[in-house]
Amino acid sequence: MTEQSKIPLPASGPSLIERASGTFDFRTLTRPVVPDLPPAPMPKVTAAPAPVMAPEPVAKAAPPVRQFTGERHPIDRSHLREQCLIEPESGVTGLLEEFRIVKRQLLRTAADERVKHGERILVASAHPGEGKTFCAVNLALSMAAEKDTEVLLVDADFAKPSVLSTLGLPGGKGLMDALADPAIAVEDCILGTDIAGLYVLPAGNATGSDTEYLASARTEEVLARLTADAPNRVVIFDSPPVLAASPASVLANHVGQTVMVVRADMTGEAALRDAVGLLSACEDIKLLLNGTRFSTTGRRFGTYYGYKE
Ligand SMILES: Nc1ncnc2c1ncn2[C@@H]1O[C@H](COP(=O)(O)OP(=O)(O)O)[C@@H](O)[C@H]1O
Ligand SMILES: [Mg+2]
């Protein structure tokens, strides 16, 4: 992901991570970006008992169920632009193109029935300030633009939630409230937006026992309701920093994919290894290099459509 601010180019040389990429094989840390899954096992063929009645005609696949009926809140497009976020309905930009590439790989895994909960994606990083919220919000905006996918963006940084302020949404009850109080239905906490297919679940009130609530059996029950009857829904979790807050490693138990944001010139190799180790409950961890200022291969997305040079 390229740096979107107008920070001048560095006077010399590639970034720390870019220098490291020549000598350090990130594949030793994680699975490759496109997971090399073994072929699905052939189903066992056994003789079926003779049907007593004629089988029912196969029902046509039902369209995705849009259960979230909460109020739709407007999202200020200029506020998105000011934060260098993807602006729906605007033209093709380099940022949009970069997230198109990232989301395609995630959606492929989300649709793969062999991956357990591939539709749940954790966006994590080792430390604060490395771009988790930036990437989670941009991914959600990019995925919501898909014609047949809807997205629920969950603010899971319970101690320092920032998704609502980033999108300019009003505060309200959220995931932690629903985990802590069985009387609160998680569906009732979800905010609609005026961006088609984009929903947001706030973090809710931090409890002091967030990690314990997340580790409880109720969490799986609550998370399952977020995608019940909605096979085309993807849930993106904006994680707390892995090396600064314990909920991240517990969340890794519940997701099928993790996007590990690595900020160029900021994230060190030891921190990255440590963080990836703490998230090892998730079998599919993909690295996303954020904040690069140049491309060694000449990638310059966004300059082709309309020849904006
Ligand atoms: N690629 C990028 N281009 C421009 N600004 C970025 C980029 N990545 C992150 N930022 C900015 O850096 C700051 C920290 O990012 P944030 O997503 O809040 O980090 P985190 O959620 O990991 O704490 C924010 O102001 C964000 O807008
Ligand atoms: Mg954040």
Automatic annotation (TrEMBL):
Keyword 4Fe-4S attached: no
Domain AAA: 121-246
Pfam family, one: AAA_31
InterPro entries for the chain: AAA_dom (IPR025669), Bact_polysacc_biosynth/exp (IPR050445), P-loop_NTPase (IPR027417), Wzc-like_C (IPR005702)
Signal sequence coordinates: none
Gene3D superfamilies: P-loop containing nucleotide triphosphate hydrolases (3.40.50.300)
Keyword annotations from UniProtKB, A to Z: ATP-binding, Kinase, Nucleotide-binding, Transferase, Tyrosine-protein kinase
SUPFAM superfamilies in UniProt: P-loop containing nucleoside triphosphate hydrolases (SSF52540)
Record-given protein name: AAA family ATPase
Species this protein is from: Novosphingobium jiangmenense
Phylogenetic placement of the source organism: Bacteria, Pseudomonadati, Pseudomonadota, Alphaproteobacteria, Sphingomonadales
